[in-house]
Each structure stands twice: as structure tokens, then as C-alpha cells.
Amino acid sequence: ETLNTCKKKKKMFSATPVFFGLCSLLGLVQGFDIGLSTKCVAIPRELDMCHDVGYSEMRLPNLLRDTSMEEVLRKAGQWQQLLQTGCHPQARLFLCSLFAPVCLDTFLHPCRSMCVAVRDSCAPVVACHGQSWPEMLNCDRFPADEDMCLASISEELELYFKAWPRPTCQGCPALEEPYLYKRVLEAFCDNNFAVKVKLTKRRTNFGDHDYKVEGRVEFIHQGALLLYNTRNLIQQWLHINENCAQRMIHTNRPTHYVIAGEIQDGRVVVHRVFHWHKKDAYLILATRKWRHHKC
């Protein structure tokens, strides 16, 4: 339970996130009369990223000085892709405390430690898309942990999160068309995991593309991957390395691929990608022979 009663008099902070070049910065809100200028409203169904965060009503205008729900939905939607990368377990709560602050007697800010933890994990993802962490989300602007604020997760949980393998920003592997099954076997030997996945893309409400893993992941070589988490890891890799997904997936129809890579110091790195055709004899032969192949 990270919600605590906040001090009644605080300097108001306003920040507009910059992610993938979609948002512009706003000025700092000063002299904002919380008690008289805001009202409690239900968090709408369309603001799905702020559901299940521990409360159901928000203050409007919010900490970003959005005065209408239309503004909130438009701006919040631009951050949805960052949340899909899984860059930090508290990224959603951090953003929702700004977009949809909990309805108390006054605003409840995220603690500085929460901002630092989210920034340190998510700024590299933002940088992967050619952006820098916005100055208006400068963590020095948030209250210190000894004040009443939304607290960060414990050091133990933070270390636990960092211990799990996670996809990161990387150079794009070439999309290969297999023409020798021995070459595919070599790719399997050179990497410590290989999976067959069905990927698709769809156009979002904002006009860009979203990339998805459809159905279950078929393990060819499991390596250090976990059975229940691999689909999520591949999904996050696609969102972090969206430029790679654009090169790989050329059609709106679901297409199968074989993805091979390794886990290096907790980082999931993809090295080889093969386009799987229905009647591709080389890939089929390679995956069958792999069971008895010695590298």
C-alpha cells in the first residue's frame, strides 16, 4: 500500500512526457489551487493503462494541467508503447500518478526514488527511439522519500526485477532466407535459444504500427529462456526494437519466424532471424535434426 496522506501545501509540478517524438513539453504549473480548481471523476474505461493501480477515481485537471478527459486520453495513449516494453514494474503507476492522480484532498506526487528507478530503466528505451528523458520529468522536481509521496518498490524487489533476463535496445539482425539446413543448424549452435513465433502488425489509433506475438511460442532450443515468460520477452523485444520489427514484418498477415539469440549478462539479444515458409524444407529439416545434432 504505497498511498499515504499527502501534505496539504506543496508546490505543484507539471510535466508532459516525450516519447518517440509524439509529445511536446509544457511549462511548470505554478500557483495551481488544488482545492478549488479540481474535481473527482471516475477513471474512464478508455484509460486502460491506469486501471488496477489501486484506485478508481482521479483528479481533473491533473498534474499535467489537462483540463478535459479528451486531453488525458490523447496524451496517455502516446505513452502506451513505453509501458508495453516492460522497462520497469512501476512505470505505469508513475505515469498514472501524473495523468490520473488519485482523488484525495490534495495531489499525491510520486517520490523522487520512484522517478529515479523508472528513469534509469526506461530512459535507455526512450533513447533507443532517438529521444532523451524529458527535462520536465527531472527527478529532482519530485519530493524526497521522507515526504508523503508514492514510494518506490523495495531494494529487494528492485534487485529481483533486475535479475530477470530482459530485452534491450540492439542493432537489428538481418532477416535471412534459409537455403541450407546446415546453416540453420549452425545458427542454433551459435546461440543458446531458438524459438518459432508468429508475428503480426496492426495500425493503431495514432496511425503507427503495433507488433504482436500471436499464439504460443514453439521452442526449438529453450536454453535459458523460461517457458511461461518467453512470449512476453519476445513481445517486449519487438516494442523496444521497433525499427527491427519494421524491417522484419512487411505484411499485415500473421507470419512465422525462427528467432535465435542468447542471454548475455541478463540481456536478451537476438542474433539471427529466419523467415519460416510453410513448405520450407530446410528449416523443417533443421528443426528435426536439431534434436540429435551435436554442435
Shape: elongated
CATH fourth-tier homologous superfamily of the largest domain? Frizzled cysteine-rich domain
Listing every helix as H and every strand as E from the N terminus to the C terminus, the arrangement reads HEEHHHHHEEHEEHHEEH
The counted number of beta strands is 8
Task: Count the domains.
Answer: 2
Mean model confidence by pLDDT = 81
* CATH topological fold name of the largest domain: Frizzled cysteine-rich domain
Strand percentage lies at 15-25%
- What low-confidence regions span 5 or more consecutive residues with pLDDT below 50? 1-36
Treating each run of at least 4 consecutive H or I residues as one helix, how many helices?
Answer: 10
* Helix-strand makeup class: alpha/beta
* Broad CATH class of the largest domain: Mainly Alpha
CATH architecture of the largest domain: Orthogonal Bundle
What is the distance, rounded to the nearest whole angstrom, between the alpha carbons of the first and last residues?
A: 51 Å
Determine the fraction of residues in helical runs and give it as a percent range: 25-40%
Largest sheet: 6 strands, mixed
In angstroms, what is the radius of gyration? 22 Å
Pfam families: Fz (PF01392)
Disulfide bonds: 50-96, 115-139
Family: Belongs to the secreted frizzled-related protein (sFRP) family.
GO biological process, one term: cell differentiation
Q: How are the SSEs ordered, and which strands pair?
A:
Blueprint: H1 34-37, E1 39-42, E2 57-60, H2 69-77, H3 80-84, H4 91-99, H5 112-128, H6 155-163, E3 166-167, E4 175-176, H7 181-190, E5 193-203, E6 209-221, H8 230-240, H9 242-248, E7 255-264, E8 267-276, H10 281-290
Parallel strand pairs: 3-8, 4-8
Antiparallel strand pairs: 1-2, 5-6, 5-7, 7-8
